[in-house]
Specification:
Strand content: under 5%
Distance between the termini: 80 Å
Helix content: over 70%
Number of helices: 6
Number of strands: 0
Largest sheet: none
Length: 177
């Protein structure tokens, strides 16, 4: 059965040579990491993950900056703050479904953080690790638009802070002055 050639669209020229080059470039971009742009997936993740490690260490040390507040309260406030960032991304995205979902998810992290203030420190570790998993899901699905670099950065912050806080709890150390 003979096939008819596809009609050229506005974005692809009628001449075959330049259309093939454009298709080859688009294919190369897709194979180089899809939404990560021209860089390969590992190269594109290096910067947000690197800054995320630094951010996670600062998050774990944050009670030192707020020495007059109990460390559990500082960690809980940090968890609420990082959960609320996605509310801003949801509003920037503009879709009602995204805003509603992000509000529910942020509310769940507020509840975990509040329980972690007076409860076990492991609740704060679980909250940070859970938020890291939420970030990985966000990175994988792209549920909220235009957050290409944020999920790997924030997931790294969350996982590093959770790991360091777990070490503090296991070693029975007190973070603060």
């Amino acid at each position: 059965m003979p096939t008819t050639p596809a009609q050229p669209t506005r974005t692809e020229p009628a001449a075959g040579g330049s259309a093939r080059r454009g298709a080859a470039r688009a294919s190369a971009r897709r194979s180089a990491g899809g939404h990560l742009g021209r860089l390969g997936p590992l190269t594109a993740l290096r910067t947000p993950v690197g800054w995320g490690v630094l951010g996670g260490c600062l998050q774990a040390a944050s009670p030192l900056a707020f020495f007059w507040i109990e460390p559990a309260t500082v960690y809980a406030l940090g968890l609420v703050l990082i959960a609320a960032v996605y509310l801003g991304f949801g509003v920037a995205d503009g879709r009602t479904k995204v805003i509603a979902v992000e509000t529910c998810v942020a509310s769940a992290f507020v509840v975990v953080a509040a329980a972690g203030v007076t409860g076990s420190g492991w609740l704060l570790v679980a909250g940070l690790a859970g938020h890291g998993l939420k970030d990985l899901w966000q990175h994988r699905t792209g549920f909220v638009a235009n957050t290409r670099w944020w999920p790997p950065f924030c997931a790294t912050v969350d996982v590093v802070a959770a790991a360091l806080l777990a070490v503090v709890i296991l070693a029975d150390l007190r973070v603060g002055w």
